Amino acid sequence: MKSIRTISELREWRAEQSEVIFVPTMGALHAGHMSLVQEARRCAGERGVVIVSIFVNPTQFDRPEDLENYPSTIESDLALCEEYGVDAVFFPQVTDVYPADASVSLIERSLSATLCGATRPGHFDGVCTVVLKLYNMVQPQVMCFGKKDFQQLAIIRRMMRDLNVDVQIVGVDTVREEDGLAMSSRNARLDQLARAEAPLIYQTLCAVKAGVEQGELSLSGVRSAVEQGLAGVESETRIDYVEVVDEESLAVVQAEGGGRCVVAVAIFFAGIRLIDHITVDLEVV
Ligand code: PAF
Questions:
Q1: Model pTM?
Q2: Contact criterion met (CB below 8 Å) for 123 and 150
Q3: Are residues 109 and 167 located together in one domain of the fold?
Q4: What is the spatial distance between Cα 52 and Cα 136, in angstroms, rounded to a whole number?
Q5: Is it the case that residue 285 has pLDDT exceeding 60?
Q6: Residue 179 lies inside a defined structural domain of this protein
Q7: How far is residue 45's CA from residue 137's CA, in Å, rounded to a whole number?
């Protein structure tokens, strides 16, 4: 496995490859990331190569303390990449990605106004800017992203469409712990009680899905169903949002019509903000 630190080294490596499948990450890799790598390997087949980038992108942090405290586990990240058959790992330097006098960046004006974007100003602009920069550096045919961050995935698809970028975006299913909690580097920051209770988020989402699909719960009752699902929890919890939205446009879905929608939640458990979502099939209502 090749370690690449500079853009010129990356370009030399890229010139020798034909089919490149790219998994951008911020490191602190866990099983969720490795499922992206596995999907990338599958897409790469015999002929293609898989590259993972590890770059903690400063422009997507709305709180400086989150950037400072972002975990760095380079040794184990490299070991995991090696184990999962990654061909190259790219560690761009902040100064290469963001020259000191950089004055051009991206703004997404629609999909980032809701859900996580509503309380994280500038976050998705930072994500768009870095993802496009990384795309330009690596020039892959395919990029893989987790469906767990489904707003991020919708925004990246929109950005690539709007900017006519010729790349295939592959969304990879959320990986869950045995108890259903969606894998995230934030889970390690939960205290013991919150870790034990947090799987209730997914259990509640599954109950909401069943309720809506069986016609026993209306979309307008989804928020109170989530509140009730969390009622017995002893950890300090706070709902940031519970929204029922269209998968692509992220517009709020109000009426049980046809098609699919997504129930998306962000909930603070003992101070740690956890996100999850579930797809609900309204055809069966
Ligand atoms: O999902 C992430 O880890 C980051 O938002 C990404 C896509 C690597 C951009 O920094």
A1: 0.95
A2: no
A3: yes
A4: 14
A5: no
A6: no
A7: 22
pLDDT for position 208: 98
Ligand 1 atom nearest 56 alpha carbon: 10
144 lines ligand 1 (CB under 6 A): no
Across 16-30, average pLDDT: 97
Domain span at residue 168 reads: 2-172
Give domain status of residue 136, yes or no: yes
Is there a catalytic annotation at residue 123?
no
- Give the model confidence (pLDDT) of 109-157 as tens digits: 999 999 999 999 999 999 999 999 999 999 999 999 999 999 999 999 9
Q: Answer whether 57 contacts ligand 1 (Cβ < 6 A).
A: yes
Token output for 244: 């029922």
Strand-pairing partners, residue 145, are: 171
Number of domains the chain contains: 2
User: Does 131 share its domain with 9?
Assistant: yes
Residue keyed to tokens 């929890």: 233
Ligand 1 contacts CB of residue 149 (under 6 A) = yes
